[in-house]
TrEMBL record, chain B:
A GO BP entry: transmembrane transport
Name of the protein in question: Carbohydrate ABC transporter permease
Similarity field: Belongs to the binding-protein-dependent transport system permease family.
GO cellular component terms, semicolon-separated: plasma membrane
Localization in the cell: Cell membrane
Transmembrane segments: 31-54, 90-114, 126-147, 159-177, 198-220, 273-290
Family annotation (PROSITE patterns): ABC_TM1
Residue ranges occupied by any ABC transmembrane type-1 domain in the UniProt entry: 90-290
Length: 331, 305
């Protein structure tokens, strides 16, 4: 108590008295014994409770519901009274051609995204970074970030209105006396279309992390390279690329670990326009089997399978990163 | 006067001396690339807004599209905002966004603050518990069964409670709180402030930028959400995005526009575009505020951790 009044009036001489008296004191009260620690931080524990309750209920509580994957769900009986069926749902799933087809579509779209989406943000970031006008750069940044904040409903609607059979592109082509192109609703064009949508929506936003990495590159390394006679291209190759490599590797790993998720909302919205043969991915398979078809246990099995494989992939990708001497997502 | 100013401005070394002057070809290439980027993003917006403002006749004459309306009219807007389905959906969207953002921001802030302080009872296991959910989400079917089991079907709480806290936003705020100098906490404690008062009087006023970003992220995600509404809510309680989904992507007519019969009904194209614009406008309004903080490193700093 005396220290408090002393500090209030004392002004400048705040630090020494604190360091002498308080840290040992606070360590004693909030030290090893859990009850003491609880006592000294009970306001904070109280503040933690709503959030903790949310995670326990809607993540861990919901997670328990995965037992339905080993049951035959009867809505009238509810989750707990429904009969157990062992791994029947899983064995049925492994023999289901539709399931494997959905898996194949998922992987194909993920691969296309990796090849055609992944480099775009890097390219745009390099372009933006090379602009000498701050004003122009900020303006272009603002514009290309924007689509990220639109919902998938709006993005899909925009694409349908621009590329659809009666859309903008085709009316322009028609006016020019050219053949119309069949993009929306054409199963063959579906995979390129969904990748194009992801590029339109998120390529601009994806630049944010590359731009941050480019800002961190030491200006002096460029200068030294230039003085040693390196042209723009060699400076890019020997200075820029090595400097941003950790970020690129990190993003690649995250993408590989998440390879079974290729945009549930986007695919769900457009599956009806092309049908399941072209448009079904693992997530929409779960949705259609379970929430539309009512085959709850079976759908949960497919969802659980996806979750387990997904977690294993994250682990594996992280291991690979450590092997390569990169940081990875966690240590 | 101007001739004196201009060279001085150009001489300002925005490009370091050791960088060679780019070739005209490179410059032209960059200019083209930038124009292409801007056109690709902006033209769809222009066309949608123009079409929504055009008259029916003009839309029909142009084969369904208008780049620039000759006689702008707000009829499509007046029609759908006249107390029909779209009006109601707009109300649902606004309500869920406001209430959801408030609860999400409060719970995220409290949790992030508690997890950012040292030696809090239980903080470490709680943090591990939360980060683990990132690795292994519960899955769509179990989540649905839980909401159903809690009796939340067709309850607006089903649109908020299951997505109350976003781990990424939590990490952003926690990182920001941890960046506040320890001396300030110490000073507050010496002034006799408890943890609650410290949060209220010291931490929150210092964190306005971070709170604004996280709040806007929550608001945008509530505004844009439609999937949970489609599985949990009856159609008369749908938010705008879900209505937009059925009427624009699904191609159904907007049945109950609240306007009088047949003759008054706007060409579907103008009406659809008007709904699309209404669903987009709030994003365009908050966007400049969001944009302001991107450059400030609030996010990039947190992404790294």
């Amino acid at each position: 108590m005396p220290t408090v009044t002393e500090n209030r009036t004392g002004g400048g001489a705040v630090k020494p008295p604190i360091e002498r008296t308080n840290p040992p004191n606070s360590r004693k009260t909030s030290g090893n014994h859990w009850w003491k620690r609880f006592q000294s931080s009970r306001t904070l524990v109280l503040l933690m409770l709503p959030g903790l309750a949310y995670f326990l209920l809607f993540h861990y509580g919901a997670f328990v519901g995965n037992v339905v994957a080993f049951k035959e769900y009867v809505p009238f009986d509810g989750l707990w009274a429904s009969p157990w069926v062992g791994v029947e749902n899983f064995s049925r799933m492994f023999g289901d051609a539709d399931f494997w087809h959905a898996t194949w579509n998922t992987l194909a779209i993920a691969l296309l995204q990796l090849v055609f989406f992944f480099p775009v943000p890097l390219a745009i970031a390099l372009l933006l970074h090379s602009l000498t006008s701050d004003l122009l750069r900020r303006f272009v940044q603002s514009v290309v970030y924007l689509p990220h904040f639109l919902s998938w409903v709006i993005v899909v609607a925009l694409f349908q209105q621009v590329l659809g059979s009666t859309g903008l592109l085709n009316s322009v082509l028609g006016d020019a006396g050219l053949h119309s192109v069949d993009i929306i609703g054409n199963p063959d064009a579906y995979k390129p279309l969904v990748v194009a949508q992801v590029v339109w929506k998120d390529a601009g936003w994806g630049t944010i992390i590359f731009l941050a990495a480019l800002m961190q590159v030491d200006e002096q390394s460029y200068e030294a390279a230039a003085i040693d006679g390196a042209g723009p291209w060699r400076r890019f190759w020997h200075v820029t690329l090595p400097s941003i490599r950790p970020v690129v590797v990190l993003l690649l790993i995250m993408r590989l670990g998440d390879v079974l998720s290729v945009g549930f909302e986007q695919m769900l919205l457009q599956r009806p326009t092309v049908g399941p043969a072209a448009g079904e991915i693992l997530d929409t398979f779960v949705f259609w089997q379970g929430l539309v078809g009512g085959d709850t246990g079976y759908a949960a099995a497919a969802g659980l399978f996806k979750g387990v494989v997904g977690a294993a992939l994250v682990f594996a990708a992280n291991k690979v990163a450590h092997r390569l001497g990169e940081q990875g997502i966690y240590k | 006067m101007t001739t004196a100013v201009r060279p001085a401005r150009q001489a300002r070394p925005t490009r370091p001396a050791w960088v060679e002057k780019p070739k005209p070809v490179t410059q032209a290439g960059k200019a083209v690339a930038i124009v292409v980027l801007l056109v690709l993003v902006l033209v769809p917006f222009l066309v949608i807004i123009s079409t929504s403002l055009a008259s029916n006749q003009e839309v029909v004459d142009n084969g369904g599209w208008v780049i620039w309306p000759a006689h702008p009219t707000t009829r499509a807007y007046r029609q759908i905002l006249d107390g029909g389905i779209v009006t109601q959906a707009l109300g649902v969207s606004v309500g869920v966004t406001l209430v959801g953002t408030l609860f999400s921001l409060a719970c995220t802030t409290f949790l992030a603050y508690a997890l950012s302080r040292p030696k809090v009872f239980g903080a470490k296991p709680v943090l591990m518990l939360i980060l683990f959910t990132f690795l292994f989400p519960p899955g769509m079917i179990p989540a649905f069964l839980l909401v159903k089991g809690m009796g939340l079907l067709d309850n607006y709480a089903a649109l908020i409670a299951p997505v109350l806290i976003n781990v990424f936003n939590l990490v952003v705020l926690r990182g920001f709180f941890q960046g506040i100098p320890e001396e300030l906490y110490e000073a507050a404690r010496l002034d006799g402030a408890g943890d609650w008062q410290t949060l209220w009087r010291i931490v929150l006023p210092l964190s306005k930028a971070a709170l604004a970003v996280v709040g806007l992220f929550y608001a945008v995600s509530y505004w844009n959400a439609w999937f949970h509404a489609s599985i949990y809510m009856n159609s008369d309680h749908w938010p705008l995005q879900q209505v937009l989904r059925t009427y624009v992507i699904g191609g159904a007519q907007i049945a109950d526009t609240g306007a009088s019969e047949a003759g008054m009904v706007s060409a579907p194209q103008t009406t659809q575009m008007a709904v699309l614009v209404i669903a987009t406008v709030p994003i365009l309004i908050v966007y400049p505020f969001l944009q302001k903080y991107f450059t400030k490193g609030v996010l990039t700093g947190a992404i790294k951790s």
